[in-house]
Amino acid sequence: MIDSKKRYLVVARHGQSFANRRLKKEKNGIKYSLAGSDTSIGLTARGKNQARNSGAALQKLFFGECRFRRMYANRFERVRQSGLLIRSRFDYSVECVEDKRLEKRSYGKFWNLTYRGVQELYADEYALFQSQGPLLYRPPGGENYFDLFERVREFCDEQQISSFSGNQLVVTSSAVMLTFRRLYAGLSDAELVEQYESMQIGNGDFDIYEFDEGLGTWKLKYIFAAKLAGRPQAFRAA
């Protein structure tokens, strides 16, 4: 599955956070009691197990000559914890780099509001959102999707992701994972929004990209679904 003569980039989602656990229950209210934009929210017990399981799966693939040379994360506590727990399953050390450009999209003033909350409390902004659409709309003090795309692309360029000599691991959020799919796997903008809204990327999932030296680009090769961990279907070809 993993060729020691090739280079790989793995992009992983953090384990379940306390905010993730509340998301479905509170999405029809006005505000989230725990918002994903809060950097201090950590992992649930389930989330910690998901991160450990992801680390164990990656250790089986990336060891010896194939070991990771560098891991990237961000300041969000759930991401930091996930990175530590993933690394705890490796039998080798990894250089760690923190980069804020790998953080989830900022919702600015609406950091803890549901769609219903914005509609009822900020009707003009909600009308603007409906007019511009989910890709272009930028909440007050926040980012639209294209802001996210730009900073992730900037991160890849400045960190020289495509020319780095060893295998690399990125631990981040689902929106950034989808941005990598857009950048390297041809995911359309419409598909990206749909997959984000429907939460198709689960906590503890990760994508494996293989670098094509001939074409000079990455190709999404395998997807690991944490909810299927322990079964043959956990890994599937992209």
> How would the global form be characterised?
globular
Under CATH, the topology can be stated as Rossmann fold
Query: Main beta sheet, described?
Result: 7 strands, mixed
The CATH fourth-level homologous superfamily = Phosphoglycerate mutase-like
Distance between the termini: 13 Å
Please give the CATH class.
Answer: Alpha Beta
When the domains are counted, the total is: 1
What's the total number of strands?
Answer: 7
Structural class: alpha/beta
H and E order: EHHEHEHHHEHHEEE
* Strand arrangement, major sheet: 3-2-4-1-5-6-7
Mean pLDDT: 96
CATH architecture: 3-Layer(aba) Sandwich
Radius of gyration in whole Å, from Cα? 18 Å
Percent of residues in beta strands = 15-25%
Enumerate the spans where pLDDT stays under 50 for 5 or more consecutive residues.
none
Determine the fraction of residues in helical runs and give it as a percent range: 25-40%
Number of helices: 8
Write a brief structural summary.
About 35% of the residues lie in helices and about 15% in strands. By secondary structure, it is an alpha/beta fold.
